[in-house]
Amino acid sequence: MATAQDPPANPPPAPPRATARKVLGKWPVWVFPSVLVTLVSFCLALVYSGGIGDPQGSMHHLPVGLISQDAGPLGEQMIRGIAAAPNPDQKVDWKLMTPAEAQDAFDSGRLYGAISVPANFTAALTSITAPPGTAGTTARPQVTLLTNPGAGSLASSLATGVEQQALRAASQRIGADLSARQRATGIQPSAAQTMLLADPVSSRTVPGHALATRTGLGLTAFYVALLVVMSGFLGANIISSGVDAALGYAPSELGPRRQVRTTVPISRFQTLLVKMTMSVVLSLVTASVVLLATAVVVRLAMPHPFQLWLFAVCASAVVGVGAQAVIAVFGGLGQVVSMFFFVALAIPSAGATIPLEAVPGFYRFLAQFEPMRQISGGVRAIMYFDARADAGLQRAWIMLAIGFAVALCLGLGITRWYDRRGYHRVHPADG
């Protein structure tokens, strides 16, 4: 007779090992991944293509200055005529400015372009209509079209296109007016005068705020900001997975090796504190590595390295803390949610590659709070606009502080509520 200590005479057979074919043949395995992958792909396609579809058609209040240095009346008449011309859907925000006001706006990134009328504009135009045989001129007066490469290459391109179109229409109006005045005096214009008066104003394009070399035509600030955001976001995901593995809430796998540690009894609140603290501390490393690589190896222009480093560290820490809060609140879906918030929705609403004045209103709304917009604005101010507060740096610091406070309140508050409601990751009785 078998005793209680003896092994059973006929132990139960081990369950058969599953195969890939058997697993793939079960429809419940497919449901959640299929639905989630489809939704994520669809939403990503909408988000990215919606932001870049039609910059010119989406233009709204593109800031362009109008400057007259003309000693006579025609320069003022021309720029006021441009400002008063029909402006459907308020695509352009024409700003009448003095040269000093325009330069200050260029140096702070508040202007994307400007039309500057020279001091001799009236005299040059009047000389064209001089009676034949007198000392006239066949030279067209030249207006300067100013751009702002620091606002981004596309912003400068859009501003230049607007300026050229407005200048061409204004030139033709002034030419027709001058031609009519000349005929009213009984003087018949010569063939050369008729040709000049058809379009009497020429132009040249120059930067209103020049950038240093190795600034990527005004795009390096965006890529530095993107690196800062990605280092904070990816760092948060790596830290979250590593802490969960160290505490025994997730397996640790390296190649063929798999390890499951003994579960450490710890609340969600305390776990999030660990993850947030590590994100803040390691942001010193990630931001330093990003700037070291871009400044020393790639040799991008960085006129204020310490300010940029300090801003990058704080920005990376805020993104990391925010991502940790989202992951703690949403659990397994947190990585997808944080990816959308910090990356997918952030890039088209950053106003870096495509100015906010040239994207649909939905993205302008997102730009009010999306981290990438605030971070790219701060990085751009430091790298291109002498770290001026009114170039976007002050707003960036304020929004980083608000974002950090919101992330702490959201993450720690909700995990504390989870703990009090008994939503433990592992029930205390099982620990």
Automatic annotation (TrEMBL):
The keyword Transmembrane helix applies. The chain crosses the membrane at residues 27-49, 217-239, 280-301, 308-333, 339-363, 397-418. InterPro entries: DUF3533, T7SS_ABC-Transporter. Keywords: Cell membrane, Membrane, Transmembrane, Transmembrane helix. It comes from the Bacteria. The keyword Transcription does not apply. Residues 36-401 form the DUF3533 domain. It is found in: Cell membrane. Pfam families: DUF3533. This is YhgE/Pip domain-containing protein.
